[in-house]
């Protein structure tokens, strides 16, 4: 009998617990709210504010918004009033930037607007996880790259009746740089006139043009193409798994679960493209200008990897050229900066150094002195000195090798080189090679002589100073304060006279190339390419640069490798940007 009573008590306790659990669930979920409230006219109070969430009169909503206090601004839009970029997944709560007000002082308050969008045809079940896109403020990393704001913070949807904003513009240059994520520092640039390389593809696997090694990036994630009708660059999501964002706004097919291509969205300079969640790509767009380059130029670079199939090394090289220099039509500059301790110093030097050279040559007296004496030593020395003074990199530095070229008539040129570090340049004239740089590694004999003359000679077998194998560089201010033997004083080469008939060429490269290929071997590769592609004048320089880069890759170089090939025997006339860079 006692056992029967015990079982009854246990059963009652179990039943009571189940009832309590059910009551708790009901109180927590409040299912009756779906039956006793109108989905079209729910009320929300914000302070003393009480108004319907949905209004059929969009104009009245806008007027109400303008009359609200800025610290209590609440905006509710009808779903049909949303722009085409709205995703079905964002039904629910979303956060976006405040709409511009007609009151110029109203922007000083809060800058967030709450969207509460209800769709009676699609109720979200209790316990269902909603994928939300919260767009408040761009992160600091993005804000420093975004150079312009879009109206109402919305993506510019490309409609069929859109017309180009700049009818006179017939092309542009697109530069992409990965600014965060595993492939940070990777760059890619392309001209809209180079249709053979369009569209630009972004993805995790080859043959993507911008190869982003990020597990959250799809194999074929997105593409960028040039719209010849609109004269604009456009971004398209290829149905990626983790989606694409443009300035923190989703770019995807209206049917977000279909994994189909999205509609094209216009790009502008300063935009930030987010692939997945961690890899962000900055966009730089510059117009093309009519420019006649009196010689062929090819640029190629690769960050390389320590082992075959391994992860790419961080890219710290920057190679660039400008022809002509701004305001100095007779002069052009070619340069390579190889960073150490990071890429910031090389990026800074590659921007500052050409500016300094152009500024010095813009002075008529100094320019005429160069042209009359056929010597730019003072210009190059002053430019390096001013660049070093402008850089404030305490723990990062870079090599710098620049080749200054100026025209003396349509068929004659002069060239002079300056460098610090171990990135090298040589010129071939009539089959004779001329080395234009000096190696500033501590193991080099000439550099050891200079160091010994400073009053603090090197010890036998000493190959490094403060852990560095270089004694000359830009940046590294901390090291230069600790040891006065470090310097930014450049080596200046002799001036060489180049005639177009001599079939001369110049080759600049970072140490990643010279670690595996000698100058003699590099010359042989150029002559081999000339024998095979002598008739292909337009793309010859580019083919040579990539051919030499492929050779360095096959020889398993283990350092960033950047190459600039200048072919003085050819002439190219095309619409191009006057300044190119690659890193």
Could you explain how this protein is built, in words?
23% of the residues lie in helices and 27% in strands. By secondary structure, the chain is an alpha+beta fold. Among the domains are: 171-288, Tumour Suppressor Smad4 (Sandwich); 296-567, Phosphatase 2c, domain 1 (4-Layer Sandwich), CATH 3.60.40. Strands 18, 19, 20, 21, 24, 25, 26 and 30 form an 8-stranded antiparallel sheet that branches. Strand 11 (244-246) and strand 12 (249-251) form a beta hairpin. Helix 4 (344-361) packs across helix 6 (377-390) and helix 10 (519-533) crosses helix 11 (540-554). The relative contact order is 0.10.
Helix and strand arrangement:
Layout: H1 2-29, E1 43-46, E2 49-52, H2 58-67, E3 93-97, E4 112-116, H3 140-143, E5 172-180, E6 187-191, E7 200-203, E8 210-211, E9 222-227, E10 232-237, E11 244-246, E12 249-251, E13 265-266, E14 272-275, E15 279-287, E16 289-293, E17 296-302, E18 317-322, E19 331-340, H4 344-361, H5 364-373, H6 377-390, E20 397-407, E21 412-420, E22 424-429, E23 432-435, H7 445-452, E24 474-475, H8 477-482, E25 491-492, E26 496-499, E27 505-509, H9 511-514, H10 519-533, H11 540-554, E28 561-567, E29 572-576, E30 579-582
Parallel strand pairs: 7-8
Antiparallel strand pairs: 1-2, 3-4, 5-6, 5-15, 7-9, 9-10, 10-13, 11-12, 11-14, 14-15, 16-29, 17-28, 18-19, 18-30, 19-20, 20-21, 20-24, 21-25, 21-26, 22-23, 22-27, 27-28
Helix pairs in contact: 4-6, 10-11
């Amino acid at each position: 009998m006692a056992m029967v009573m015990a079982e009854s008590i246990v059963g009652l306790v179990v039943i009571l617990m189940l009832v309590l659990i059910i009551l708790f669930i009901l109180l927590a979920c409040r299912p009756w709210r779906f039956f006793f409230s109108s989905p079209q006219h729910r009320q929300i109070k914000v302070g003393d504010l009480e108004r319907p969430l949905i209004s059929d009169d969009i104009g009245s909503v806008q007027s109400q918004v303008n009359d609200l206090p800025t610290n209590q601004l609440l905006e509710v839009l009808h779903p049909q009033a949303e722009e085409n970029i709205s995703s079905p997944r964002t039904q629910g709560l979303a956060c976006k930037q405040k709409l511009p007000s007609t009151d110029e002082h109203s922007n000083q308050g809060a800058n967030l607007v709450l969207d509460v969008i209800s769709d009676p045809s699609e109720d979200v079940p209790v316990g269902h996880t909603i994928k939300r896109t919260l767009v408040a403020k761009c992160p600091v990393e993005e804000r420093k790259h975004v150079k312009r704001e879009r109206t109402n913070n919305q993506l510019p949807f490309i409609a069929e009746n859109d017309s180009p904003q700049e009818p006179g513009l017939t092309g542009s240059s697109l530069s992409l740089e990965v600014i965060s994520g595993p492939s940070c520092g990777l760059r890619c640039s392309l001209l809209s006139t180079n249709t053979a390389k369009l569209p630009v593809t972004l993805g995790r696997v080859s043959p993507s043009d911008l190869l982003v090694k990020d597990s959250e990036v799809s194999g074929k994630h997105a593409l960028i193409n040039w719209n010849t009708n609109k004269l604009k660059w456009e971004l398209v999501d290829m149905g990626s798994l983790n989606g694409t964002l443009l300035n923190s706004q989703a770019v995807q097919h209206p049917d977000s679960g279909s994994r189909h291509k999205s509609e094209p969205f216009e790009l502008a300079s300063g935009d930030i493209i987010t692939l997945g969640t961690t890899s962000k790509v900055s966009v730089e767009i510059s117009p093309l200008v009519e420019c006649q380059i009196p010689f062929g130029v090819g640029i190629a670079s690769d960050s390389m990897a320590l082992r075959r199939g391994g992860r790419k090394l961080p890219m710290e090289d920057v190679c660039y050229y400008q022809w002509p220099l701004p305001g100095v039509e007779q002069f052009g500059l070619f340069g390579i900066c190889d960073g150490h301790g990071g890429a910031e110093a090389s990026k800074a030097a590659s921007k500052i150094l050409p500016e300094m050279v152009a500024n010095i040559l813009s002075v008529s007296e100094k320019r005429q002195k160069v042209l009359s004496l056929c010597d730019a030593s003072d210009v190059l020395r002053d430019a390096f000195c001013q660049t070093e003074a402008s850089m404030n990199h305490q723990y990062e530095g870079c090599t710098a090798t620049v080749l200054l070229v100026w025209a003396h008539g349509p068929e004659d040129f002069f060239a002079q080189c300056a460098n610090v570090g171990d990135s090298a340049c040589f010129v071939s004239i009539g089959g004779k090679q001329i080395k234009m740089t000096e190696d500033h590694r501590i193991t080099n004999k000439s550099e050891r002589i200079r160091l010994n003359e400073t009053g603090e000679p090197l010890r036998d077998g000493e190959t490094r100073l403060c852990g560095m194998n270089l004694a000359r560089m830009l940046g590294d201010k901390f090291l230069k304060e600790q040891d006065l033997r470090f310097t930014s004083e450049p080596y200046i080469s002799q001036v060489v006279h180049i005639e177009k008939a001599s079939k001369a060429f110049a080759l600049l490269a970072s140490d990643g190339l010279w670690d595996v290929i000698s100058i003699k071997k590099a010359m042989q590769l150029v002559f081999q390419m000339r024998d095979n592609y002598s008739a292909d004048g337009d793309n010859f320089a580019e083919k040579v640069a990539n051919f030499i880069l492929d050779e360095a890759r096959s020889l398993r170089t283990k350092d960033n490798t950047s190459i600039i090939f200048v072919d003085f025997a050819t002439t190219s006339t095309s619409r191009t940007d006057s300044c190119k860079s690659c890193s």
